[in-house]
Fold this protein.
Amino acid sequence: MSIAEEKTILICMRVTHHGYHVPGGLRVQCADCGELVWVSPSGWLILHDSPGAEVVCVECGLERMLAEPGKISPPTPAQLDELNEYLHQKGSAA
Ligand SMILES: [Zn+2]
C-alpha cells in the first residue's frame, strides 16, 4: 500500500487576518487546524489541476515546510504576488 509521493499543498491566508480579503476568493477550512482560509482564483486553478490537494493556512503551511524541507514545491508566481501583498498588508496593519 503506497501513498502518492507528490502531494500538492495550497497555502492560504486565514480569513481572520485583519482586513485581508481575496477578490473572487472562496473560504475553505485549513486541513490541519480547521481555520477558514481564503482560496484565491489562482489557488482554485491549482486545486483543479491537482486532485487530492490539501488546503492549509499560512501558519500550518510554514510548519509543514519547516518539518519537511524540500518536500513542498515553491509557490507559483501568482502565489508569490499574493504573498507579497499579504506581507505588505501585514507590515502596514500591525
Ligand atoms: Zn491551519
Remarks:
- Residues 9-93 form one domain.
